[in-house]
Design brief:
Helix content: 25-40%
Number of strands: 8
Distance between the termini: 35 Å
Shape: globular
Radius of gyration: 17 Å
Structural class: alpha+beta
Strand content: 5-15%
Strand order of the largest sheet: 4-3-2-1-5-8-7-6
């Protein structure tokens, strides 16, 4: 099996897993993978992640031009903004997952680091999570805002929208997105409770142990 066909199957498998577990609904959410030739595979516009067809995935060249398949997601620019700033990014997952989106709507979160260090796994898979200001869907200024943060952060949270997460593989992007959603769920569950967060020293120790940026 060619690399491209393997990635086509993997995108469909991951999409179905995310959809079946309620991490995305309807035709929301999109996935992309960078190919060796510099182009991309991307989920099509108005497609449910739960019912993707490997043959109809959007195949883009290195300039973002559609080569084959259905038209790409209307949020392709979010993916390309991440890839443009992160040479280590092999895949990007963008969801409208319920808990992460709920946190993106809260008024008093820290826009420089939306979720606190609640677990070691959040620190290891996400690190610091900045909030991208709200822009209407399709607004080109949203791409500029994501690009401005992407070089320093592989995961961002779009205000009133949802997370965008890059990974060194599709599996890593998926796992990081799921960890973000679980941490957002914990954060909402524990509102108005006294929290025992990881200390700055504990976070620094994790960064040293696992060579985190």
């Amino acid at each position: 099996m060619s690399e491209e066909n393997r990635f086509r199957d993997e995108i469909c498998r991951v999409g179905a897993s995310l959809f079946d577990r309620g991490l995305t609904a309807g035709s929301s959410g999109n996935i992309s993978v960078r190919l060796e030739d510099g182009g991309w595979l991307m989920t099509p516009t108005n497609a449910s992640l739960g019912a993707l067809d490997p043959a109809r995935l959007s195949r883009l060249d290195e300039t973002g031009r559609l080569l084959s398949g259905d038209a790409p997601t209307k949020e392709a620019f979010l993916h390309l903004s991440m890839y443009g700033e992160r040479k280590d990014a092999a895949a990007v997952v963008h969801l409208h997952s319920s808990h992460a989106t709920a946190v993106s709507i809260l008024r008093d979160v820290d826009p420089n680091d939306v979720l606190p260090a609640m677990t070691a796994y959040f620190v290891m898979r996400i690190g610091r999570l900045p909030l991208v200001p709200y822009f209407a869907p399709g607004d080109p200024d949203l791409a500029h805002a994501v690009r401005a943060l992407a070089s320093a952060h592989h995961a961002v949270l779009l205000a009133n929208h949802g997370p965008v997460v890059a990974g060194t593989s599709l599996a890593n992007a998926q796992y990081a997105t799921e960890e973000l959603e679980e941490t957002a769920k914990l954060f909402l569950m524990l509102q108005n409770q006294a929290l025992r967060l990881l200390t700055p020293e504990q976070v620094a120790d994790l960064r040293r142990r696992f060579n985190l940026s």
